[in-house]
Amino acid sequence: MEAVLDLYAEPYDPKRPVVCFDERPYPMVADVHAPLPAAPGRARREDYAYERRGVCNLYMVFEPLRRRRWVRVTERRTAEDFAWQMKWLVDEVYPDAEVVRVVLDNLNCHTPAALYRVFPAEEARRLVRRLEFVYTLLPRELVEYGGDRVFGVVASVFGSAFIGHSVCASCGGGVGVCAGCVGLRCGLAFWGVGCA
């Protein structure tokens, strides 16, 4: 945990940017009945019934020190999709960076091996040399570490970087990454931790 917090406390370095990476399944739905438009004295009305239209995957990248964020949509979440997201980060988002430091959870496909499964060895090695993975605590490890201490330390590390961003309505946690930036239920999702 200290490695992640120390990383967040470092000043911004364009040659070694720090980004948070996470993904989320997202259900696609359609209206069963067309909504009724608003009328004088009456708000637009929508029926609660919906029709499922499958699920997509949202990859979210957040650079806290520059307050930048990206959301990319894919059909599924696989090691191949992860590898392509890392290639996009290195080649398109940060082409001039020496190394991109990626904070991510311990999902089974979040490994350098995913790049070797997708790209030729030479290309995978080039990408791996430009990436530094920093893994977060698992939820049980956070409980052992002390969740309350983490909230306090994270808030002190980020400080004014999140002025104007709302805090998590679910847990009241201090950083506010979720509601203001990427729409996650809890900002701690970037550390692989669910809401209390």
Strand share of the residues?
15-25%
What is the percent of helical residues? Answer: 25-40%
Q: Give the mean pLDDT.
A: 76
Specify the biggest β-sheet. Answer: 5 strands, mixed
Q: How many DSSP H or I helices?
A: 7
Number of DSSP strands? 5
What series of H and E elements makes up the topology?
A: HEEEHEHHEHHH
Write up what this structure looks like:
This protein is an alpha/beta fold. It is built from 7 helices and 5 strands; from the N terminus they run H-E-E-E-H-E-H-H-E-H-H-H. The protein has helices spanning 2-9, 79-93, 112-118, 121-130, 139-145, 147-158, 177-182, and strands at residues 18-31, 50-63, 68-74, 100-104, 131-135. A 5-stranded mixed beta sheet has the order 3-2-1-4-5, sandwiched between helices. The longest helix is centred in the middle third of the chain and has 15 residues, at 79-93.
